[in-house]
Amino acid sequence: MRVTLNEKDHVYTVDGEIASISVTELLKKHGLAPDYSGVSAATKEKSAKRGKQVHEDLEKVLNTADYEPKTEQGKQFMEWVSDNLDCGVGEQLLAYVQDGLIIAGTADVLGITKQGELIIGDHKNTAKFAREYVSWQVSIYDYFLRRIGEEKINGRKLSWCGASAFYCFHYNPESGDMTVYTLDKIPDLEIERLLECEKNGEKYERAELAIEPELREKFLSAEERFVLLETETKKAQEERDNLRNELCAL
Predict the structure, then answer these.
(1) Where are the alpha helices (DSSP H) in 64-102?
(2) Crossing angle of the two packed helices 131-146 and 188-200, in degrees rounded to 10
(3) Which of 36, 47, 111, 193 is deepest in the core (most CB within 10 A)?
(4) How many other CB atoms are there within 10 angstroms of residue 102's CB atom?
(5) Residue range 169-188, pLDDT digits in tens
(6) Distance (Å, rounded) from C-alpha 88 to C-alpha 119?
């Protein structure tokens, strides 16, 4: 299988045929990706330019021997790689072909840990961490890899029996500070349902409401603060009323 990417137009081709859709476009089309329609064109262009520079640095950390990172993001990622991986590949082009449907994408991180386990990850340089979106991305790439079998991609044989861990390497856009998030794998059944919907021209609907753990924790924290403030407010009102009664009596 020969997979190529025209970075200028962000168009994938698979064995000479233009891909029907990319993984990123697929998730956006079915409501599984963040909506950036409210972001100005200038901001998007600036973010894209900065993200490309960072991604190139991160890719070389895995693909270039004795590489010295140029960015803060690259330096932190290299430290994580040194501590956790035995080897890895960056920016691996992947594709899925079935019944005329061609889907292609790029896995940011494929690696083997020092314990011999397969991992897959994605880099994100966004202000907010979209857990569900990244979970879908890495799970889909893992799904594609497990179905390659003995076929080579761009001359490289990838014997992939399935990742044991899924990660998002999230970088603060301003400081470059890296936070590593462990992700849950999207079940194969749901991925297949998404692919079937795309093939049939239908809109994928989540099997159940997905609530990100961070959002749930923030809500519970806010609820606790509100209850505390409400209790304190009632006490203050009672104290005020008592003092007002004393003043009226005087």
Answers:
(1) 72-84
(2) 90
(3) 111
(4) 19
(5) 999 988 889 999 999 999 99
(6) 9
